Amino acid sequence: MKKDTFTFHNGVKIPSIGFGTWQIPNEEAYDSVTMALKNGYTHIDTALAYKNEENVGKAIREFDTPREDIFITSKLPAEIKGYDETLEAFNETITNLGVDYLDLYLIHAPWPWSEIGKDCTEGNIQSWKAMEKLYNDGKIKAIGVSNFEIKNLQPILDECDIVPMANQIPFYIGKDQEELLSFCKDHDIVVEAYSPLATGQVLDMPELKEMAEKYDVTVAQLAIRYCLEKDTLPLPKSTHESRIIENKQLDFEISDEDVKILQQIRDVRD
After folding, report:
1. Which positions does the site annotation Lowers pKa of active site Tyr cover (predicted)?
2. Please, are residues 260 and 230 in contact by the beta-carbon 8 Å criterion?
3. Over 70: is that where the pLDDT of 255 sits?
4. Which of 43, 53, 114, 213 is most buried (most C-beta within 10 Å)?
5. Is the pLDDT reported for residue 200 higher than 70?
6. Number of C-beta neighbours around residue 225 at 10 A
């Protein structure tokens, strides 16, 4: 790929494609992460809420690669808000993974999943301050958020010391979130694109199949490459080795003209 890494505003580098583990059960996570590592992935994304940190960590520890060569992300559960609660959850994650530090730790969402849209501003600020402490103590190399809109990010910028280094959001062909992307770029926040295949729903779109044939790639490769063309960091996931391999084979570029065409596609899930 043309771009091997993104760089956070604190200088820490993150591999430009990650292996996502959302919806991979704990019993399958060991094999899936091992396959990803075997096939060149050095960036693994998990979360306490995924309930698979134990086997994600086991796969990383047992693979013949130094810890410092693997970038590990995990997340504070969306329903946990508060300073002490965040420190406790972080310790649980570190214990689950069996590691001494995280490369990136994110607030999973600005509100509990059972109360989407709830105003948790003060709780998010307190959680962020706890993450700043963990960062300053050297237990995390970078800190960020996930699913945060501009209205959720602004209080962090106003009330806290450290600007988030990353914002992990749903991003795929049909869901560009241009205003949020622009805001993050203005504040030097790296945008990570989760669900780059719209949980598989872009794969059957005729116009994408036609364009993928033009580049002699799969629709999945086209969709993941599109995220990179939009300067976002994709996090594809699979439990099938052939697709794990395919999702990382992105040594092509989408022309500016075709990127503009893809930008016009409406959200397949609307």
Report:
1. 75
2. no
3. yes
4. 53
5. yes
6. 24
CA distances from 193 to 8, 45, 168, 229 (A): 15, 12, 6, 12
Rounded Cα distance between 214 and 195, Å, is: 24
Buried b (16+ CB within 10 A) or exposed e, 46-56: bbbbbebbbbb
Q: What amino acid positions are annotated as catalytic residues?
A: 50
pTM tops 0.85, yes or no: yes
Q: Where are the domains of the chain?
A: 5-193
Q: Return d(Cα 5, Cα 20) in angstroms, integer.
A: 16
Residue partners of 142: CB distance under 8 A and separation at least 6: 8, 10, 12, 14, 103, 104, 105, 135, 165, 166
Q: Tally Cβ neighbours within 10 Å of residue 162.
A: 18
